[in-house]
Amino acid sequence: MLQKTVLLLALVTQVLMLENGLLRTPPMGWLAWERFRCNIDCDHDPKNCISERLFMEMADRLAQDGWRDLGYVYINIDDCWIGGRDAKGRLLPDPKRFPHGIAFLADYAHSLGLKLGIYEDLGKMTCMGYPGTTLDKVELDAETFAEWKIDMLKLDGCFSTAKERAHGYPKMSAALNATGRPIAFACSWPAYEGGLPPKVNYTLIANICNLWRNYDDIQDSWKSVLSILDWFVKHQDILQPAAGPGHWNDPDMLLIGNFGLSFEESRAQMALWTVLAAPLFMSTDLRTISPQNIDILQNPLVIKIHQDPLGIQGRRIFKSKSQIEVFKRPLSNGASALVFFSRRTDMPYRFHSSLLELNFPESKEYEGQNVFTGDVIRGLKSETNFTVIINPSGVVMWYLYPMRTQE
Ligand code: GLA
């Protein structure tokens, strides 16, 4: 009897677990929403409306301008692509804006070495009012996405009840598993429950989702970045342990390349999202992005830190009265990333500290690199006092590893 119960329990957890082996490091790519929203006016704005043309042009840029080779492989459709359902209830894209269908787009992405993501909503309608995936449609829609060769699904939660979500998200996770196609699962579930226990059970979420939105939508402003960051830091004791290989917190898209952030703020978002092991989904026009912003997004050392195989989310470890904060992310081989972040709005600030003060072990020596300037750091002892100069709303980011002791 006991044996049978154990077997049954094992089966139940297996069904509930998302065992797709995907996203061992946080995903990187491009997502349409923040920059292109629900612009469906292809008559007046054919270049920027949500259409297959937009996704093909962005896919071309990802493949040709170095993005794909650095790891930005996902090209993700968001809301406003749906045209309706056919007689059998199967989802159809808008025929005018996606005349060749979604399978065609997936093939196009795959031919360029990219992966295609899509969006649906577990409710009557998507947030913008397009047909949703009601509970009775979960399996059918999962099968449709798999047939189209989709690689990631973002399942939103507008127009759903808490009960429907508690049912629907595990159901979709199991349905995606059952298709046999590895489809990364991005859940918005926690964001619709306030993002915190007891309403949100992060152990369960991490078992059924590969990534999840915890909090508000990002908007194109520094104020929005700060409010998201503040929430993530305030609740880091809860959020930090929830992340790990295959399952990530998602503070939402990168704004870099758009209109709301200064140069310093852009670097800061890149550095902070990287130490938080957040998905790096750009949402900008890759056809017109400036070289300066490309440099921020394509910084190889930032990406190496972001993709560290240990997949440990960093934390804020220090906050001074002078409005300087320090974040640390532990990396493989004893290395770590430090981000010195200034919330000041006056002038570059000289911040004095030592690694010992930042809880590094005593009597060790480190080397590494200033990530954005490329300056080499050598012979930095835990006890050494150092000064970093941090611009207003800016960061200094270090990659550090312990020096090998001479044999
Ligand atoms: C919600 C999500 C956003 C975006 C929109 C689309 O607000 O949080 O990321 O997907 O819906 O309507």
What does this structure look like?
By secondary structure, the protein is an alpha/beta fold. The protein folds into two domains: 2-306, Alpha-Beta Barrel (TIM Barrel); 315-402, Golgi alpha-mannosidase II (Immunoglobulin-like, Sandwich), CATH 2.60.40.1180. The chain contains 14 helices and 18 strands. It has helices spanning 2-16, 33-36, 52-64, 67-70, 102-111, 138-147, 162-179, 189-192, 202-208, 222-234, 236-239, 263-275, 291-297, 300-306; strands at 28-31, 74-76, 82-85, 91-93, 115-121, 152-156, 184-187, 211-213, 248-250, 280-282, 315-319, 324-330, 336-342, 349-354, 365-370, 376-381, 385-390, 395-402. The strands form four sheets. An eight-stranded parallel sheet has the order 9-8-7-6-5-2-1-10. Strands 11-12-13-18-15-16 form a six-stranded antiparallel sheet, covered by helices on one side. It has a two-stranded antiparallel sheet with strand order 3-4. Bound molecules: alpha-D-galactopyranose. Alpha-D-galactopyranose binds next to loops.
SSE layout:
Elements: H1 2-16, E1 28-31, H2 33-36, H3 52-64, H4 67-70, E2 74-76, E3 82-85, E4 91-93, H5 102-111, E5 115-121, H6 138-147, E6 152-156, H7 162-179, E7 184-187, H8 189-192, H9 202-208, E8 211-213, H10 222-234, H11 236-239, E9 248-250, H12 263-275, E10 280-282, H13 291-297, H14 300-306, E11 315-319, E12 324-330, E13 336-342, E14 349-354, E15 365-370, E16 376-381, E17 385-390, E18 395-402
Parallel strand pairs: 1-2, 1-10, 2-5, 5-6, 6-7, 7-8, 8-9
Antiparallel strand pairs: 3-4, 11-12, 12-13, 13-18, 14-17, 15-16, 15-18
Helix pairs in contact: 3-5, 6-7, 12-13, 12-14
This protein binds alpha-D-galactopyranose (GLA).
